[in-house]
Write a structure and sequence with these properties.
The complex is a heterodimer of chains A (171) and B (355). Chain A is an all-alpha fold. In chain A, helix 2 packs across helix 5 (74-92) and helix 7 crosses helix 8 (146-163). Chain A has 9 helices and no strands. Chain B contains 17 helices and 7 strands. In chain B, helix 15 links the parallel strand 4 and strand 5. Chain B is globular. Chain B starts with 5 loop residues before the first helix and ends in a 28-residue tail after the last helix. In chain B, 51% of the residues are buried. Classes of the chains: A mainly alpha (171), B mainly alpha (355).
Chain lengths: 171, 355
């Protein structure tokens, strides 16, 4: 097996992830997250392009809270860390480099369209669910929140329901 | 209660943000090593070829869950306070439908929001494009929320802070033990399915080690019920009041309850419960006791002894039919004798929170 194809055993990776999550709970009193930071970055970009539009929509304007910047939030910094940690992992495993995954059976344009469209759906869904797979499923799931478990089971249901239609992309 | 280090998120905010970056680095590194920076590895879950997503996710959930049970069992943290601070409240319908749509987006893009960041960091262009999509989607949602019907969906099925051990009414440790045992059974099932479909099975030694560790943690977590008196009982204390109960009190006997709103002043100015008093969360403990029960609106950790939290917050309040009837015609309730300031009818407005 090539070095770049070596991954951790899933159970050991899961335990390591669980310990990171537990440390976050105990040290910060918070869970891990991702989509909350995406929302703040979106508002930050909009503030630069169309400040009037942000001010007119209370859902956008209230994101900032009482802070000076909409990016002044623990999740934004945590996600910055996720990016650095991901890059560190990829570089040290010899997996770092510009590439497109999943374009074996479909055109690059189609693959990027699916990547973007799926992302938009997930952004909308994460706002409705008050979190994504990190904030709801993982963090809320571990503290046994009812809503998080509803969400988690629903994520798997949605994935399996559409798997057949997307089989060319992933075969 | 020892944990969490509240000074990290409040006073020494900069220190907390540095810790946030370090935690993120650990999170991103582990996700990358688990293979979660690659769309093909993630999507394989939904074709049952490689159940890596399921195994990693549930091992992580079980590990953190048991760790939290043990820490609270030994009195290092308060289970309910910490859980309420970690988890968002439950809104049944948006979470059910949001979960399904997120699952659909997952199989279409090959990533979830967190793993798309790791993919982008690994140089995967498709991952970076997904990150762009997620940012666009979260932004579009704020536009959709402008539509009143969509706002109603967003706030539907509000249940406040709600945990599986409240629903099934067993001690949290017992429920955690049951979840861990079910996870192990599901892992064994996943290995069998993979073997049937010709996939790679996880090395037997590692599997045994992982399962034995989980079982050992379960035993410790359950034993803490016996050695630390009161943990199971204390964590079952219901500390919320529903929007409909509060609305009835506000209409019938507004003087009998004291409503304390701990949200920031701007939010309070925009939208509040009649007779509510706005104070900062940190001055909550200095609140003089006037004998009346207290209802808290907003996010707060560690309730005063005679206080309950409004389940679902202002979103649940504004969605409550009694309140809607109040704002559309019926005369406003009389002000409580001690209240000062302007009584304002609540406007229809939801709190958009995304964790």
């Amino acid at each position: 097996m090539e070095r770049s194809e070596k991954f951790w055993n899933p159970y050991l990776a899961g335990m390591a992830l669980g310990l990171v999550l537990l440390a976050t709970f105990l040290i910060m009193g918070k869970g891990l997250g991702a989509s909350g930071a995406a929302n703040r970055i979106g508002v930050f970009i909009a503030e630069r392009i169309a400040p009037g539009h942000v001010a007119a929509n209370p859902n956008l304007a209230s994101t900032k809270g009482d802070r000076a910047s909409v990016l002044d939030d623990w999740l934004v910094f945590e996600v910055l860390g996720v990016f650095l940690g991901g890059a560190l992992g990829a570089v040290t495993a010899g997996r770092f480099g510009a590439k497109i995954i999943g374009a074996g059976n479909i055109s690059v344009a189609a693959r990027l369209m699916f990547a973007f469209g799926g992302g938009v759906l997930m952004g909308l869904a994460a706002r409705a669910a008050r979190g994504c797979t990190s904030g709801q499923a993982l963090s809320g799931g571990a503290v046994l929140s009812v809503g998080s478990w509803i969400f988690m089971l629903s994520v798997f249901a949605g994935g399996y329901a559409l798997a057949w239609f997307m089989r060319r992309e992933w075969s | 209660m020892t944990f969490p280090f509240t000074e990290l998120s409040a006073a020494a905010r900069e220190g907390g943000l540095i810790v946030a970056v370090l935690i993120g680095i650990a999170f991103g590194f582990v996700l990358e090593r688990a293979g979660f920076g690659r769309a093909d590895k993630l999507a394989a879950q939904f074709y049952l070829r490689d159940m890596r997503v399921f195994k990693v996710m549930f091992t992580a959930i079980v590990t953190a869950m048991l760790g939290l049970m043990i820490a609270s069992g030994f009195g290092l943290a308060s289970l309910r306070d910490l859980s309420e601070s970690i988890a968002s409240w439950t809104w049944i319908w948006p979470m059910l439908i949001g979960g399904f749509v997120l699952g659909a987006g997952f199989i279409i893009s090959g990533y979830c929001p967190g793993t798309s960041i790791v993919a982008a960091a690994s140089g995967n262009i498709d991952g970076a494009v997904t990150v762009g999509g997620v940012i666009t989607g979260t932004f579009l949602y704020s536009e959709l929320l402008q539509i009143p019907a969509f706002q109603r969906f967003h706030n539907s099925g509000a249940k406040g802070a709600w945990f599986l051990y409240d629903l099934i009414k067993v001690p949290p440790q017992v429920l955690a033990a049951a979840v861990a045992v079910m996870a192990i059974l599901a892992f064994i099932g996943a290995e069998k399915v993979e073997a049937m479909l010709g996939g790679q099975r996880t090395a037997k030694r590692v599997r045994r080690f992982a399962f034995a560790t989980v079982v050992a943690l379960v035993v410790v977590a359950v034993v803490t019920i016996a050695i630390v008196p009161g943990t199971a009982v204390a964590s079952q204390r219901p500390s919320t009041i529903s929007a409909s109960d509060l609305a009835r009190t506000v209409i019938d006997a507004p003087w009998s309850v004291r409503i304390i709103d701990v949200r920031d002043a701007a939010e309070f100015a925009r939208d509040r419960i009649p007779g509510a008093q706005n104070i900062k969360p940190e001055s909550l403990k200095d609140l003089p006791d006037d004998g009346r029960p207290v209802v808290i609106v907003g996010n707060v950790r560690g309730l005063p002894p005679n206080a309950r939290l409004l389940a679902g917050g202002m979103a649940a309040w504004n969605a409550e039919p009694l309140v809607r009837a109040m704002t559309t015609g019926a005369p406003p309730p009389p002000p409580p004798p001690a209240a000062t300031g302007v009584i304002q009818k609540p406007k229809k407005h939801g709190g958009g929170c995304s964790s």
